[in-house]
Amino acid sequence: MFQHKLCAVTTNHSFSGYANEVGESFRALTPLWFVRSTYGVASAYVVADTYDKATKMSKQPGSTQRAVTHAAVDTLLWQALASVIVPGFTINRVCAASLVVLAKALPAVPLNTRKWVTTALGLGCIPFIVHPIDTGVHWAMDRSVRKYLDLSEQPQK
After folding, report:
1. Each residue of 23-48: pLDDT tens digit?
2. Which GO cellular component terms, listed alphabetically, does the Swiss-Prot or TrEMBL entry include (predicted)?
């Protein structure tokens, strides 16, 4: 688990936080409603984690409403970017590109087989994108929104 010194967010993804990456991996094989529902699951995780961090901050001795709000904003933005937006986009593009490349490189392979290979590639990428995305989101937030948030009070884990 990664705890940034000025950050309310700990990098501790729940399996439900990966739902949209799994959905994007299966996009070629499943109906659109399935993919969209996985974003609902991942978004519910983001909201639940935001609530959890805000609640923990509110229970800190001497915690202010401002500190609770800042912890909630930091968590919501970080989780939305690191758990939903960036990984979903990344897996979507990996899968879309692999489907195009497979169609051009192996046109004799049946479409359904190419879709399964694309799904496997998407699923296989998930463990490799987590750390770089988390690090990149921390880096970007440290240089932007966190400059304006007071995150000096830390929620207890």
Report:
1. 999 999 999 999 999 999 999 999 99
2. mitochondrion
Query: What is the span of the domain harbouring residue 30?
Result: 15-147
Q: How far apart are CA 17 and CA 9, in angstroms?
A: 14
**3 domain residue, yes or no:** no
In a domain, 157, yes or no: no
Using CA atoms, how far apart are residues 20 and 106, in angstroms rounded to an integer?
28
> pTM for this structure?
0.86
- 61-92 pLDDT per residue, tens: 999 999 999 999 999 999 999 999 999 999 99
Give the long-range contacts of residues 120-123, CB within 8 A, separation 24 or more: 121/25, 121/94, 121/95, 122/21, 122/24, 122/25, 122/26, 122/91, 122/94, 122/95, 122/98, 123/22, 123/25
